[in-house]
Amino acid sequence: MRPVRRPAATPMIRLQRTPVPALASLPALATALRHRDHRQELPTPWATLVRYDPLVPMYRIPPGSPEAEAAAASQVLPVVADRLRRLTTAYAEWHEFDAPAFFDLSVAQTLRLVRIVERVTTVHVTFYADQLLPSFAAAVAYWQQEFRPAHWEGSRNGVDGRAARNAATAAHYAACMAEMASAWERAMTTVALARRLLRDEIGFWAANGAGEERNRYRDAWARAPGSLPLALPALDRIPTLTLTVDFPLPAARQPGRLRRLHRLQLRRRAGRLRARSA
User: Fold this and answer.
1) Is the full-model pTM beyond 0.85?
2) Full DSSP string of the chain
């Protein structure tokens, strides 16, 4: 009897090995400004994504002054940190972890905000919270949509550090440079203020991933050209709200677990035999 053919189920999107999102943090943006890689293909700016795919209220930070955004972020970030803390026990309850469901995010939002890496015996989760700030999202969008093309055109026309061959290009380049510098300063000020307001939030600091995020770009930072498009602080002085958490990978999902258990049983059996013969 021929078996009944069933329609194929929609495969579940796997997020356990998601790549590092493009320009997901302030250190990432600073590194991009230093490198000025015009060939890099980038996804839709985060600001555009959330305009058509709004975040749920728990993640929303209204645009405003750096002080207002930082104050709102100081209310949102402890909630995110607490969710990461709860993930350390909730992860084992999922046969196939559904990150969008756990974080109350759409798939597109999850791919931009969350990175999950399953290692041999542990799980490492990163939440790129800088993107929740409208000032940071605006700075990235401006860099991607305005500054980067203007800088590329300016370099082609001799504006970047040389005598301009086209006055209109030079004027446009100077205007974009000033706007980019303003957007960068606003984003960095907002992130720094938010961290200052969170100074007493133990949950936030327990998940603080700033050092790890800066280290991710250290090699690229060192290889950057000497002539920068605008003044930037040293990498170690660039703040970020990036959060990270590590916890044990459920034993049943550890690769080679059965092989390791078998070896352990053999060692224990050999130990018992040696004890009896002693």
Assistant:
1) no
2) -PPPPPPPPPPPPP-TBPPPPTT-SHHHHHHHHHH--TT----S-HHHHHHHSPPPGGG------HHHHHHHHHHHHHHHHHHHHHHHHHGGG-SS--HHHHHT--HHHHHHHEEEEE-SSEEEEEE-GGGGSHHHHHHHHHIIIIIHHHHHHHHHTT-SSS--S-HHHHHHHHHHHHHHHHHHHHHHHHHHHHHHHTTT-HHHHHTB-HHHHHHHTHHHHHTS-SS-SS----GGG-----EEEEEEPPGGGSTTHHHHHHHHHHHHHHHHHHHHH-
